[in-house]
Amino acid sequence: MKKWKSLWLVFAIALVAILGACSEKDKQESATQAEKVEPSQAEKSDITIENNGTTQVYKEAPKKAISLNQHVTEIMLALELEDSMVGTAYLDDKIYEPLQAAYDKVPVLAKQYPTKEQVIDAEVDFLFGGWKSAFGEKGVGTQEELETLGIHTYLHTASIMTKPTLDDIFADIRNIAKIFRVEDHGEALIEKMTKDVEDIRAKLPQDGEDLPVLVFDSGDKEVFTAGQNIMNELVTMAGGKNIFGDIESGWTTVSKEDAVERNPAVVVVIDYGETSAKAKINFLKNDPALKEMEAVKNERFVILPLSAASEGVRAAEAIQILAKGFYPENF
Fold it and tell me: Which of helix, strand or coil describes residue 16?
């Protein structure tokens, strides 16, 4: 009997030792797994963005952002970031209808740019500018100055470059999505915009020459028009040819005589501000020089809101409006 008791005692001790070893092994494996997880989490918490000559390091997603121009406001809303925004500013015209409900949740701080005091009072941690003026003398301060105040900034790159394309807009969308840790939203938005543009372009005539187009922003003594800004890309993708697309600048001024000589078949009227599109068309019809253009004689005008003519999420909408105006029989 004593012999059996001894055997059971040895067995019990061995079992305890085995279980202890297994427990220790599990702890070691858990620690190893934790070490494997930590680097990826650290990488995700630290995001570096190069923008307009500045280097911005984001340790976490901004929580109190302000968008400073309409087209970048619409980018943020399209990425469903309204809950991370404490304000917007500088509305050019009506907000993009699908984004109206989200826009209504965000305070409008100013008709144009907010003051530096408003920005500081809102305890902002991120400012998104659409035009250079946002961080200029009449804006909220330089990017470098704001960085010293602990405020991250991003200037929309596609809006300040020559000859931007849809891919350049997509690059900005990806950067904002990355900063706010909503990369999936960014890719989904880009995928939808790409498909919408492809569907529109599939309806365009596949042969023949592109229509010569004048983009008319404004002008009294001279014509303020599009050179190689995003309108050049939008007009081209809609089956037109920007008659001043050879000028290597964004928005540019040309003479009335040059516009008449290049004789556009269609005029795209940019609609915003106090001077209505109707008033601009009346001006074109009554101007001694510009009324001689084929487009004016045939009353071929396409009205495009400035917000759709900017480097934002409304590219497909803009191309749709232009394409319908250029080739109504195809739509």
Answer: helix
Name the amino acid, one letter, at 98. P
Rounded to 10°, the helix 230-237/166-179 angle is 120
Mean pLDDT of 140-166: 94
Together in a domain, 213 and 82: no
Integer Cα distance of 53 and 59 in angstroms: 20
Split at pLDDT 50, 70, 90, the class of 137 is confident
**All residues at 6 or more sequence positions from 206 whose CB lies less than 8 Å from its CB, including other chains:** none
CB atoms within 10 A of CB 182: 18
Cβ atoms of 316 and 238 within 8 Å: the answer is: no
Relative to beta strand 266-271, strand 251-254 is unpaired
**What pTM does this model have?**
0.83
In a domain, 218, yes or no: yes
Contact in structure between 139 and 68 (CB atoms under 8 Å): yes
**CA terminus-to-terminus distance, the chain:** 99
Domain of residue 76: give its range: 50-198
DSSP character string of 44-76: HH-EEEEETTEEEEESS--SSEEE-SHHHHHHH
